[in-house]
Write a structure and sequence with these properties.
Largest interface: A-B, 39 and 37 residues
Shape of chain A: elongated
Mean pLDDT of chain A: 90
Number of strands of chain A: 17
CATH class of the largest domain in chain B: Mainly Alpha
CATH class of one domain in chain A: Alpha Beta
Strand order of the largest sheet of chain B: 1-4
CATH superfamily of the largest domain in chain B: Electron transport complex subunit B, putative Fe-S cluster
Structural class of chain B: mainly alpha
Number of helices of chain A: 14
Strand content of chain A: 15-25%
CATH architecture of one domain in chain A: 3-Layer(aba) Sandwich
Distance between the termini of chain A: 88 Å
Distance between the termini of chain B: 77 Å
CATH topology of the largest domain in chain B: 3-methyladenine DNA Glycosylase II, Chain A, domain 3
Radius of gyration of chain A: 31 Å
CATH superfamily of one domain in chain A: NADH-ubiquinone oxidoreductase 51kDa subunit
Shape of chain B: elongated
Strand content of chain B: 5-15%
Order of helices and strands of chain B: HHHHEHEEEH
Helix content of chain B: 25-40%
Number of domains of chain B: 2
Strand order of the largest sheet of chain A: 1-14-13-17-15-16
Low-confidence stretches of chain A: none
Largest sheet of chain B: 2 strands, antiparallel
Oligomer: heterodimer
């Protein structure tokens, strides 16, 4: 039994958890869809660069896109088949915009490419990181940040503690819960590898105490292991306990200020699913081509499914049999998820939950009322912000002021919107203000670059003018000298005649003509 | 008293030399607000000259179509002047665009290269030209010199990368 002091984060809310609907059934494997659409933009950072073209035969697990930059990972064929092409297709994004995807027609054989396990403890750490990148491992908690980047050694601060995030605080979602119940050993294998790469000396697993089965499964598995000390800790259920900064604070007491990250304080956080994927990538050589997804909400048969990346969300939703009055589908949970503009979009690495909703389940919010400055949002904010102030300035589009109130510290958890008695969609305002500020920063950068280029051009034109003038002056001086040296009239005449003859010659192009 | 005034005078004199401000800081501030398209729609040969004219009080603040309403608001804030709508004689605010050369029609005359204020067009005489889209400011100065009309202004499409969350007020009323 672990007895240890836990810390608290301020704020937070306790929405109805709705976990019981989907955590009863065992994990089901979703059938293979005939056409898989794999977006090139799946991870945070840069999109991947396609390496296949229409007509190519690919095998399951074959790399179809390579990393497109330093914060980017490889993408793999989720099954064997033929590449139909690289097409623009809707991807799961609140905008509903199209983005390039590799479309693969499955051949039904589902044949693996040759792959093999490695012994992670015999390879150099940087080699392991590159293997994680080439296996397409990204954070499965929702942000899909490339994991190999997170394991990079900082020159100034060693990683002391590796935190495994199994809090899963968002209502309705149970995929991490089921994973911890069924594959605790694999998760801890992966965590040990991640700790080895990051150089961590201990592993702490944080799980919300509304998942007792997961806590006991993980504890049992941890007790069997030798090596790094592993602690499995049940943290109080309170949304958003699974936020990175919140979980770090609860488990270690470290409060991470704005602009800093866990590694600056010797802590690095990974989702349990990411640890499991790491183990799979290194211990069996299988890249990230599928993930566990919760399908729940207004459906007849909620549950968790092992689904290939690229499976159309409509196919996945059908497996859970949505009820007739379903009028919206969310990706993610009710607090932080967004409504999918189209069900044609494929499943991506960041999809942890597909939540069907209806009017009865999520009644439309009443009309937005004026802010009465009650301060409920400030009390609920887990980042110690003052949402009402940020709202005020975001609404008035005084973006600089909103930023002064630390808008960019907001994690968009939705606690303020949840408690607001005036039903103000605060997070929507913050998202608007953030993206507007980012766009303006980009514009300013572009303007600065344009100014530099313009000034450089003016400088160059000036220099060219001076060079030309200097050349002409030199030539004039030369002619003058020649004339002076020539002395007698005949030679002068000859020179003038020669010059006249030159002007008679067909003019060479000195200026590019229009035709 | 007299010694004090001499000392202080000396100190002030020294400070005025030592901490001399190069250039006009107001012009710099105005220039930072202007969009740097260098398009000349304001009637001045570039953003900096327009900024200088505003600082001297020779030009109004509403002559910059690419800066648009927001630019005018920022200038009004900076200078403590009243906001006024964009003056129609200098043009209208258009969606952000970049120039695109129809490479099949281009004859390689280099006139557009000479017109581009930010050197965003590459090419050589009798060779095809093309616009470096990321550096094009959308000033439209290359359109007029082109003898074969092969340059078009294409609005920048909305993509996942430049998509922005919308202002929520109206969306909320609709969702109810």
């Amino acid at each position: 039994m672990n007895v240890r002091e836990l810390f608290k984060f301020t704020g937070g809310v306790k929405p109805a958890s709705h976990k019981a609907e989907s955590n009863q059934a065992a994990i089901a494997v979703a059938p293979l869809s005939p056409v898989l659409t794999v977006p090139l933009r799946q991870n945070a950072g840069l999109a991947s660069r396609p390496l296949v073209q229409a007509g190519d035969k690919v095998l399951k697990g074959q790399i179809i896109a390579g990393p497109g930059g330093s914060i980017s990972v490889a993408i793999h064929a989720p099954t064997s088949g033929t590449v139909r092409g690289i097409e623009t297709h809707p991807i799961p994004h609140p905008s509903g915009l199209l983005s390039p995807c590799v479309v693969i027609e499955a051949d039904g054989e589902d044949r693996w490419i040759e792959h093999s396990a490695v012994d992670p403890y015999s390879l150099p750490v940087d080699e392991l990181r590159m293997r994680l990148r080439d296996a397409g491992v990204v954070g499965l908690g929702g942000a899909a940040f490339p994991s190999f980047v997170k394991t990079q050694h900082s020159p100034t601060q060693d990683i002391e503690t590796l935190i495994l995030n199994g809090a899963e605080c968002e209502p309705f979602i149970t995929c991490d819960d089921l994973l911890m119940r069924t594959k605790p050993d694999e998760i801890l294998d992966g965590a040990a590898i991640l700790a080895h790469i990051a150089g961590a000396k201990r592993i702490v697993v944080g799980i919300e105490d509304n998942k007792p089965e997961a806590v006991s499964a993980m504890s049992t598995a941890a007790a069997k292991r030798s090596g790094l000390p592993i602690e499995v800790i049940a943290v109080p259920t309170r949304y958003p306990a699974g936020g990175e900064k919140q979980l770090i604070r609860v488990l270690t007491g470290i409060e991470i200020p704005f602009g800093k990250l866990g590694p600056d304080y010797g802590v690095q956080c990974f989702n349990v699913g990411t640890a499991c994927a790491t183990a799979r990538a290194l211990l069996s050589g299988e890249p990230m081509i599928s993930r566990l997804v919760t399908v729940t909400g207004n459906v007849e048969r909620p549950g968790n499914f092992e689904v290939r990346i690229g499976t159309p969300i409509s196919d996945l939703l059908k497996l859970a049999e949505p009820k007739a009055d379903t009028d919206r589908t969310l990706m993610g949970g009710p607090m932080m998820g967004f409504a999918l503009p189209t069900l044609d979009a494929p499943l991506v690495k960041a999809t942890n939950c597909i939540l069907a909703g209806s009017k009865a389940m999520f009644p439309p919010p009443g009309p937005e009322m004026p802010c009465i400055r009650c301060g409920s949002c400030a009390r609920a904010c887990p980042m110690d912000l003052q949402p009402f102030e940020m709202f005020w300035f975001s609404r008035a589009k005084i973006l600089g002021k909103a930023q002064e109130y630390h808008l960019f510290d907001c994690i968009e958890c939705g606690c303020c919107t949840y408690v607001c008695p005036s039903r103000i969609p605060l997070v929507d305002y913050f998202r608007f203000a953030k993206s507007e500020i980012r766009a303006r920063e980009k514009e300013n950068e572009a303007a600065d670059a344009a100014r530099l280029r313009y000034e450089f051009r003016l400088e160059r034109e000036e220099r060219e003018k001076q060079e030309k003038a200097a050349k002409l002056a030199a030539k004039a001086a030369e002619t003058k000298a020649k004339l002076a040296a020539a002395g007698d009239a005949d030679e002068k005449k000859a020179l003038i005649a020669a010059a006249m003859a030159r002007t008679q010659e067909p003019k060479a192009e000195e200026k590019p003509s229009a035709e | 008293m007299a010694i004090g005034s001499v000392l202080l005078g000396g100190a002030l004199g020294y400070a005025s030399v030592k901490f001399r401000v190069e250039g006009d800081p107001l012009v710099e501030k105005i220039d930072a607000i202007l969009p740097q398209t260098q398009c000349g729609q304001c009637g001045f040969p570039g953003c900096k000259p327009y900024a200088e004219a505003i600082a001297k009080g020779e030009a109004d603040i509403n002559c910059c179509p690419p800066g648009g309403e927001e630019g005018i608001r920022k200038l009004a804030d900076l200078l403590g002047r009243e906001f006024k709508p964009l003056s129609g004689e200098h043009g209208i605010e258009k969606p952000k665009s970049t120039a695109v050369i129809d490479e099949n029609v281009c004859i390689g005359c280099t006139l557009c290269i000479q017109a581009c204020p930010v050197d965003a067009i590459v090419g050589a005489a009798k060779q095809m030209h093309t616009v470096i889209a990321s550096q094009c400011t959308g000033c439209e100065l290359c359109l007029a010199p082109c003898p074969v009309n092969c340059i078009a202004m294409v609005p920048i499409p909305e993509t996942i990368d430049n998509w922005k969350w919308k202002y929520p007020v109206f969306a909320v009323r609709k969702a109810a």
